Amino acid sequence: MSTVQPNMKYQTSFSQLLLWTLLASCLLFASACSKKRIAKKAQQKQERLEDQVMEQVLANAFTPKWFKAKTKIGFDGLGMKQQLGADIRIRQDSLIWMTVYPSFVKLPLAYALITPDSIKVIDRFGKKYYPKSIDYVEELVGYPIDFHTLQDIILGQMPTLPNKRPRLTALDEATYQLAMQDSSIAVSANIDVNNYTYSSMKVQDQANNRQVNMKLDDYQAINDKLFAYQRKLRIYIPDTIAADINFSKVETPNKALKFPFPLKASYERIE
After folding, report:
1. In this structure, is residue 197 part of a structural domain?
2. Is 90 exposed, middle or buried (0-12, 13-18, 19+ CB in 10 A)?
3. 176 or 161: whose pLDDT is higher?
4. What is the dihedral angle through the alpha carbons of 61, 62, 65, 66, rounded to the nearest 10 degrees?
5. Is residue 47 in a domain?
6. Would residue 181 count as lying in a domain?
7. Cβ of 75: how many Cβ atoms within 10 Å?
8. How many domains would you assign to the chain?
9. Which distant-in-sequence residues (6+ apart) come within 8 Å of 51 by Cβ?
10. pTM, whole model, 2 decimals?
11. N-term to C-term CA, the chain
12. Closest CA relative to residue 181, chosen from 198, 169, 172, 193
């Protein structure tokens, strides 16, 4: 009775194939793990850089408890082209006060008191009083600007989105860009790496094709913080509203400011 002998050539080839498969699998797995480690390290490095830049930006942030300033505003939009003056006062995160007057004489045309949930306007010449919700700002300018965005625009700070981490991109050797986005709003700001100040900002309402751009210039020190005295604000809704703003007599006092609001009982109330 004959015994069937194994085919040695086949057995050797099969062993080699099995070994090669195992080695190849190990190599592919190792390569994948290596790529994941490299990607993870790159992400960690990027996040460290973002944290460092944000730390510098926050250290330079101009966020006084009390703020007052005078401005000259060149306004062009909504069928109007005017040169106006305005006094602005802020109690941080709670109240913005403004009075507006012609650029050639300080005769108040209007007063405004703005809180996180309301805006109250006195039209002195029309003898009207407008007590409105903060949504009225959108009716006025055609863009959803809330209290904190308005405060950021005045103080020259980057608007933020809730629970969103800004991502950092190097545009060139002297400029970083911070950007964040949610389902419909995109916010970005360009940063001068020489002093970690904002050179420009952009807020895009992508769902409604609306946008706010602001360029900032002429930074000057106020109590060891840098403040941009010149702004070029552009609102696209899609028609363009342009406002060139020049600040002067900027102060950050240590005591509470007054916010006069001369409402007369005879004024017509417009709800």
Report:
1. yes
2. buried
3. 176
4. 180
5. no
6. yes
7. 16
8. 1
9. none
10. 0.79
11. 111
12. 169
Angle at 232 between CA 231 and CA 233, to 5 degrees: 110
Q: Which residues contact 60 (CB under 8 A, 6 or more apart)?
A: 195, 196, 197, 225, 226
Q: In terms of residue numbers, what domain contains 244?
A: 66-264
> CATH no. for residue 194?
2.50.20.10
Contact 112, 259 (CB under 8 A): no
pLDDT in tens, 129-141: 999 999 888 777 7
Encode pLDDT of 156-170 as tens digits: 998 888 888 888 888
Which of helix, strand or coil describes residue 98? strand
pLDDT of residue 46: 63
**Comparing C-alpha atoms, which of 99, 118, 95 is closest to residue 110?**
99
Cα dihedral across residues 111, 129, 258, 119: positive or negative: negative
Give the pLDDT confidence of 209-250 residue by residue, as tens digits.
888 899 999 999 998 899 999 999 998 887 888 999 999 999
Look at residue 114 and tell me whether its pLDDT is greater than 60: yes
Asked whether 252 and 66 are in contact (CB, 8 A), the reply is yes
CB of 125 closer than 8 Å to CB of 106: no
Distances (CA, A) of 269 to 93, 108, 236: 27, 19, 31
Question: Do 228 and 60 form a contact (C-beta atoms < 8 A)?
Answer: no
